[in-house]
Structure prediction request, 245 residues.
Amino acid sequence: MTNKYMIFIANWKMFGGLNSLNTINSVNRFLKKFKYKKLIKIIYCPPSTLINPMSVKLKNSKISVGAQNCHENQKSGAFTGSINTSMLKNVGARYVIIGHSENRQSGESNELINRKIKSALKFGLKVIFCVGETSQERKKKFTNKILTKQIKLGLKKIDNKKNILISYEPVWAIGTGVIPKTKELLKTINFIKKKFKNYKVLYGGSVNPKNINQLKNIDNLDGFLIGGASQNSKKFIDIIKKTYN
Ligand code: PGA
Prediction:
């Protein structure tokens, strides 16, 4: 049971069409009545196609909308298929996920991530900054080293603890159904918090209504980034409820 402020982020990845917007109705209804509503923040990160309709739908709600990625260029330009942070802000996004391992795996470097974060902050978007080690790096016991490097380079010349949420997402835990052991996760979160003081740190990777009972015991966490389970509002609500149970 927790009684502290927690952030719950829904990362829909490349899923969902206009019909999916209805799934938020029940989350909205739930939030209005939830005993601990003052303690929680919910952020939905749908695919770019749904940012605007979702933010219109949530206009009078406490739920915020975020994007899943952005282009690093602060000015508009000839970048076919890309969207920059001022455009995301313009259509209703208030947050943006940057550095997700699915994008790192397709070639996103720490330097590029740093540019993206700067651009997001410049246009008033809050950043959900993802970091995490691969299973190979974990086996070699490189986790702390990798996290330090990713965070240091990602946040190079940036000092904005208020508007950056660090999300620790071990690559081997994403979409696999496997989560770190409690002791291991506690240690890693403590390591990040000690090294990068005053940042909020979330956990992401296979969070679901079953393992939340284990994850909620990690009392230095500030919230969860939820992928697969967030597309189903019943599961998403269940995760939130159980966190406070
Ligand atoms: P998952 O995804 O919950 O489906 O593992 C988490 C994420 O990648 O943000």
